[in-house]
């Protein structure tokens, strides 16, 4: 459940500077905060903590102001980024690089380690509302690589931003039915979507893909989808992507790999992960070998040991699980089917 971070009206709004960070100064960072005197002072901020991240819904019937100076930064070097979803009114932001304004429906990111001045303005109906998210900057950089140290503003017309806001709102409004892991997943997904929106925006749009790049993406996707098929071959990929096997070899050389190297690398990586995260009572090594597209457990064991330096059984034991007794996989006919499979990739 969300909790009240602060609430000010005409009786106590002059106390805002000492109380806006919560009862134990656990939120935000040091700065100067004040509320414009008006006949109707009504400011409320509610907070929902999800791990080190805070979701904060702020509503106000008057203008709000916040300033963070170099002196504040020297006294409090907390490096937080704030993600702002403006719902009503405006967010006016000023720093050494100039002035920016986020209007209703816009999205912005500000960071605490550069001086700035913010004004939260009410709309024509005298209301200001926004959902903002305080995130330790080192966590946010795991999702957004763009430099936002001096502020980043953009219209929230990207569908990723709309979905991200919905996810964050859902997490904020949760009444306790979602567990902590689920809440963190919602927030992490929202941050990932925001990162995708940043990369897809016009200002950050990468160089237009060439035809070869698009074809390579199609090839890699086809291989990923059909990786478990022991019959996977360049002929099969060429047919599925409507290009020639020779062109596939050309595309993969651009990645400094070959078809067989790429397929074996992906199959072994998936098998390694599967071995490390499965119980031998649920699935045997043979089933894992067939599940990632190998034609025989023996071939799988040889290649696994060649690459990782241990056979699958020993590796699984080193990961903390004891292998169960061998379990027959399927029927004799199924074994015969695998034994008779094409040897194109062996």
UniProtKB/TrEMBL annotation:
Domain HTH araC/xylS-type: 217-318
GO MF assignments: DNA-binding transcription factor activity; sequence-specific DNA binding
InterPro entries: Homeodomain-like_sf, HTH_AraC, HTH_AraC-typ_CS, Tscrpt_reg_AraC-type_HTH
UniProt entry tagged with the keyword DNA-binding: yes
Pfam families on file: HTH_18
Record keywords, A-Z: DNA-binding, Transcription, Transcription regulation
Record's protein name: HTH araC/xylS-type domain-containing protein
Species the sequence originates in: Novosphingobium endophyticum
